[in-house]
Design a protein that fits this description.
heterodimer; A: mainly alpha; MetI-like fold; 84% helix; B: 251 residues; alpha/beta; Rossmann fold; four-stranded antiparallel β-sheet; 7 helices; 10 strands; 36% helix
Chain lengths: 239, 251
């Protein structure tokens, strides 16, 4: 593990006891439904993110490759980017009410434009030499997209996804805050409404830990795996 | 092996700026080559060598004239070697070979393996390009071009970015590979020494993409850069080249 990662990790570890105490008291207060609550939220969050990832990459590549699709979709994506997460959350509530679809839609709608814009940018940066090489050898389009375009935009996918995680987390909490019957957002609101400061803060701290851990542990690990071709030391000389 | 016929090929680029004349890259070029031959196109930079290759590979359309590449009357398969290796950095050497091949995977793998063996890369099949030296990457590029089993092989100054020692050893390897595999090769270079050592025929282009000379080289193979006959021929061609440059400067 890199020095930077372990440093950040150490900071988290140091903060853990305080948070654990707060959280434990909350858990004690609000009985065993807590776990279920958290998993409900995670379900919506991850399904929404998965949709955003798939749609965002596909849309971004399409916009990056085709001027026609760019002309058609670019403004729509920019509008999507400009709409704040809270608006998407409220719209999702209006559309789906107290349904599992609400947080999913809120996350997906908030996160997709971030990924799409980044990926479209990345497609434009694909090496012209490699594109020419592929064209010369007559490599078919589907193979080019999979093995040339997609790997070369992975940097941009990760950059976009990081934003998408944070924006999506916002959206899912807001959707549950205003329109949920359970989930983390709903629980937080309940504590807020009953003026229970400890409970409220412990949930907020819990969000922060969760996002930091997700970013540091999960995302970083996936990134290292994806870019392992980059980190290789050169083998001895030879001509 | 293929037959390449270029007839009256002309390429004019639009002016690079206002009030400048259009750029005449190739002017009425006709060329024919066929069978197991190694033909080099040499010329000073800006003589239209790269444009010619771009047109042949279909990246650039010609302004006028025609090109046909055929094998026994039907259209031929082409292979390319570029100035730099142009490998996908995120795929291993073997996967890079498979990227440009179609058809059955096992046979493609076998073919790739054979040419990687021949250029001495059999031990780095699973390495990423970033782990290899520049010379090894370029050899992978050469193996890739041979492994699509091309009828015509187009090479664009493939050794120009390498150090002299690496380039020399790759030239010897290319010569052996070409004799063994029996391909029609069109080799573009600005290095006359290299052209004389490798080619059966040298086409010298002058500015504006006109054929200045078409010289047959009938020396025994395999040729070494150190052979006296090769050296003598190199000096002669170099002399002609200097005359051409001189004439161009006077005119």
């Amino acid at each position: 593990m890199s020095a930077r990662t372990s440093c950040g990790f150490a900071a988290i570890v140091r903060g853990v006891p305080i948070m654990a105490i707060t959280l434990a008291s909350t858990l004690a207060l609000s009985a065993s439904a807590q776990n279920v609550t958290f998993y409900n939220t995670l379900d919506g969050f991850f399904i929404g993110l998965a949709i955003a990832l798939v749609v965002g990459i596909a849309l971004g590549i399409a916009i990056g490759l085709s001027d026609l699709i760019r002309a058609f979709c670019n403004d729509i994506v920019l509008v999507g980017l400009a709409v704040p997460g809270v608006i998407w959350a409220l719209l999702a509530i209006l559309w789906y009410g107290f349904s599992w679809k609400t947080p999913v839609a809120a996350v997906a709608l908030t996160a997709t434009p971030f990924i799409a814009v980044n990926v479209a940018q990345g497609v434009k940066a694909t090496s012209r030499d490699l594109i020419r090489m592929s064209r010369s050898f007559g490599v078919p389009m589907h193979k080019r997209i999979r093995h040339l375009v997609l790997p070369s935009v992975m940097d941009y996918v990760f950059a976009g996804f990081r934003f998408a995680v944070i924006m999506g987390w916002n959206a899912v909490l807001l959707a549950e805050w205003f329109g949920g019957r359970d989930g983390v957002g709903y629980q937080t609101r309940t504590f807020y409404d009953s003026n229970d400061f400890t409970g409220f803060v412990s949930w907020v701290l819990f969000f922060i830990i969760f996002i930091v851990l997700l970013d540091r542990l999960a995302l970083e690990r996936v990134a290292r795996r994806t870019f392992r071709w980059r980190a290789q030391p050169a083998e001895g000389g030879g001509h | 092996m293929a037959t390449l016929i270029i007839e009256n090929l002309t390429k004019v680029f639009p002016p690079t700026a206002k009030n400048r004349p259009p750029v005449q890259a190739i002017t009425g070029l006709s060329l024919e080559l066929s069978g197991h031959v190694f033909v080099s196109v040499v010329g000073p930079s800006g003589c239209g060598k790269s444009t010619l290759l771009n047109i042949l590979s279909g990246v650039e359309p010609p302004t006028s004239g025609s090109i046909s590449v055929t094998k026994d009357g039907s259209s031929a398969r082409l292979g390319y070697v570029f100035q730099d290796a142009r490998l996908l950095p995120w795929r291993t050497v073997m996967d890079n070979m498979l990227y440009v091949q179609d058809g059955q995977r096992e046979r493609a793998r076998e073919r790739a393996k054979r040419y990687l063996d021949m250029v001495g890369l059999d031990e780095v099949l699973d390495s990423y390009p970033g782990q290899l030296s520049g010379g090894m990457q370029q050899r992978a590029g050469i193996a890739r071009a041979f492994s699509v089993d091309p009828d015509l092989l187009l090479m664009d100054e493939p050794f120009s970015h390498l150090d002299a020692i690496t380039a020399r050893s790759l030239r010897d390897q290319l010569q052996a590979l070409w004799e063994d595999a029996g391909k029609t090769v069109l080799f573009v270079t600005h290095d006359i020494m290299e052209a004389v050592q490798l080619s059966d025929r040298i086409v010298v282009l002058s500015h504006g993409g006109r054929i200045h000379a078409d010289i047959a080289i009938d020396l025994p193979r395999p040729r070494k850069a150190s052979d006296p006959e090769v050296a003598a021929f190199q000096a002669e061609i170099l002399g002609r080249f200097e005359t051409m440059e001189h004439d161009a400067a006077v005119a």
